[in-house]
Write a structure and sequence with these properties.
14% strand
Amino acid sequence: MRVLVLFAHPAQRASSINLAMAGVARGVDGLTFVDLYAEYPRFEIDIDREQRRLVDHDVIVFQFPIYWYSTPSLLKEWQDLVLEFGFAYGPLGKHLTGKALLVAATTGGRVTDYAEGGGNNYPVRQFLLPLQQTATLCGMSFLPPFVLHGANRIEAPEAQAHIAAYGGVLRALVRDEVDIASLAGRDTFNWAGLPLALGS
């Protein structure tokens, strides 16, 4: 499959894990990688180019750190401008129908912070509902998110495992080894165990 990774991080010097994940994504053969903040430092988004990119790919990956329970501002601006009526939705807006959206997000808080009674009161999946609904409106399949909690220490074993697993997920998507139809709409999936899951 043709996979497009849209990487959005406004403070990359402070994010070793996201940069490492971006480096892994850049190294996947057959994948298109776009650093939105590098391409649009002044937020002057080329709507036609971005829409062509979407049309030319089967799977769209949003990679970003969760900022204030949402996407970084440039990725939100990208959505506001690129996913316009008549292109992404509406009676004639069928250009994204049948494509898939995967969110690859990181949080500073631990998984226990993203739970009922935790510091953020809700699981991270709740904060991603606007992206899920966006995918639904655009006729896309929303895949279970690939999330790393507590993404503050790149040397932590779980961080290293997550970075390595990200490459595996992207390669599996490029090779068309992921059953998109069976994953669409599921809340969770063990992406790190993808090779095992594919064989079962």
